[in-house]
Write a structure and sequence with these properties.
Blueprint lengths: L1 H17 L14 H4 L15 E5 L2 H5 L6 H7 L13 H15 L3 E5 L2 H4 L8 H16 L3 E7 L18 H16 L5 E6 L1 H9 L11 H25 L4 E16 L24 H6 L9 E13 L14 H14 L3 E5 L4 E2 L10 H17 L4 E7 L12 E2 L3 E2 L10 E2 L3 H10 L4 H6 L25
Parallel strand pairs: 1-2, 1-9, 2-3, 3-4, 4-5, 5-6, 6-7, 7-9
Antiparallel strand pairs: 8-10, 11-12
Helix pairs in contact: 1-9, 8-10, 9-10, 12-13, 13-14
């Protein structure tokens, strides 16, 4: 029964994490009191010297031209909404994107070194791929940009699946060998490592739903994969430190403001006003993999998290589009406080952002500019209360392939990845981020310039983030 109890708890946490891909209801919620109060958040201090202001992307999504990962096989098998031949052409245009990153004022860039490129067949190293990542790291370093390297951003070599993939007994040691290779090859150019990107989402998408490869609905198999991934992180942590004495290692969990709701139904305007419709309690299950990892010892140098939205878990749960996720900046403050309290480690925001759908305005009227400023403001609030925060990394530098489709647009620079010319165009959010970085935080002036949507009209004719719509303030 004890084993059954552990399995049940794991399934519950995985199911909650599943909803982390979703917004809190089928329709966009009305503005909340928390959003209306966002501009009233006091933030005293500017970000410290050395704070990492960054942008993020990932190999399969950004680089394209992948033929050797399990995701490439999944795509070729017709299991995605759209094919991904070239991503955002990052394999070719990495120097251009490094220039754009520097032009924002950023000093950090998160991307992945793709295991499937480096080792397309087991035991076979592709020297051209090895040199490519040297070139990428050199391009970043030449511009004064700190690389943040992810080793497993949902994609891994397809040959792993021949004997069980992440359920197989060999998986942890194989991953540790790759981590050791990366540290020995690139350690002089890399300090910050993330072993696994959003392992809670990876497990949910691959073993509790058909959203991602391997596309199983097998919780027991998912539990095996969870244990292999926890062991793999621990072994990779040791390997990275053995070959790179400056290494700082973590993995980033998807976290959110999670709450229990009732039966699935559309949201109504009364939801925000009636406390009985609100969550009975918050659910903090984004830490379950940390607990599994700690069975192998404390294998973290910092705590990394991805935060996007607030949602309620309705059963049966649904998967709303990314452009309907409820923007709730205060949730970032709560998550940062919670992680620091639990792990007593400095915190890195490895991802934060909002999506539009093929560049159409969001129905909730949030802009990327307003969201970015409001979230940084909440981050400053946590830092004012003593939480050490290493950096803020925005997802993403460009629009790219969002695991099956190009329609969700998260980029500070828009790219029409479908049409083949891959021209980068500055999008909403880029200028706001540039101003935030220059000011070393979300100042009162920037909060007034880029406020949340649910505010009384400002009498002066400000223009909101270049969109041409009147700015509102509190």
């Amino acid at each position: 029964m004890a084993a059954a109890g552990r399995i049940f708890r794991t399934l519950v946490t995985a199911l909650v994490s599943a909803a982390a891909l979703a917004a809190c209801a089928k329709t966009s919620p009305p503005p909340t009191a928390a959003n209306r109060a966002a501009a009233g958040v006091r933030a005293k201090a500017a970000m410290p010297e050395g704070f990492m202001w960054g942008v993020s992307t990932a190999g399969f999504q950004w680089e394209g031209q992948d033929t050797t990962s399990q995701w490439a096989a999944w795509d070729k098998a017709g299991k995605t909404s759209e094919r991904n031949p070239r991503g955002a052409d990052g394999l070719v245009r990495y120097e251009e994107d490094a220039d754009l990153t520097r032009g924002l004022g950023c000093n950090a860039f998160r991307t992945s070194i793709e295991w499937a490129r480096i080792e397309p067949q087991e035991g076979v190293i592709d020297q051209a791929a090895v040199q490519h990542y040297h070139n990428v790291l050199d391009a970043l370093r030449a511009r004064g940009i700190e690389p943040l390297v992810t080793l497993h951003h949902f994609a891994y070599p397809a040959w792993m699946d021949k004997d069980g993939g992440w359920e197989g007994n060999k998986a942890p040691e194989r991953f540790a060998r790759f981590a050791a290779f990366v540290a020995k090859e690139y350690g002089a150019k890399v300090k910050w490592y993330i072993t696994f990107n959003e392992p809670n989402v990876f497990l949910m998408g691959g073993w509790l739903s058909p959203m991602m490869p391997p596309g199983k609905t097998d919780p027991l198999a998912g539990l095996r994969a969870l244990r292999r991934i926890a062991k793999a992180h621990a072994l990779a942590y040791d390997a990275l430190h053995a070959h790179d004495t400056d290494a700082q290692v973590s993995f980033n969990m998807y976290t959110a403001e999670w709450a229990l709701g009732g039966p699935t139904r559309p949201a109504t305007p009364m939801d925000a006003a009636d406390p009985r419709k609100e969550a009975e309690r918050e659910i903090c299950s984004d830490t379950f993999l940390f607990d599994e990892v700690e069975k192998h010892g404390r294998k973290l140098d910092y705590a990394a998290l991805d935060y996007y939205c607030k949602f309620k878990l309705y059963l049966p749960f649904v998967f709303p589009r990314a452009d309907t996720w409820e923007v709730y900046p205060e949730g970032l403050y709560k998550a940062v406080k919670r992680y620091h309290k639990r792990y007593k480690l400095p915190v890195l925001i490895a991802e934060n952002g909002i999506a539009t759908w093929d560049l159409a305005p969001r129905k909730d009227r949030w802009t990327r500019s307003a969201s970015l400023v409001a979230h940084v403001r909440q981050l400053q609030r946590a830092m004012d209360e003593g939480v050490p925060v290493l950096g803020y990394v925005h997802w993403s530098i460009t629009d790219n392939y969002e695991w099956g489709t190009f329609s969700p647009r998260f980029g500070l620079f828009s790219v029409d990845c479908r049409n083949g010319n891959f021209t980068r165009k500055e999008a909403d959010g880029a200028e706001a981020f540039r101003r935030v970085i220059a000011a070393r935080g979300a100042t009162d002036d920037l909060v007034r310039r880029y406020p949340p949507p649910a505010a009384p009209a400002l009498p002066t004719p400000w223009v909101n983030g270049g969109t041409g719509t009147p700015v509102q303030a509190y």
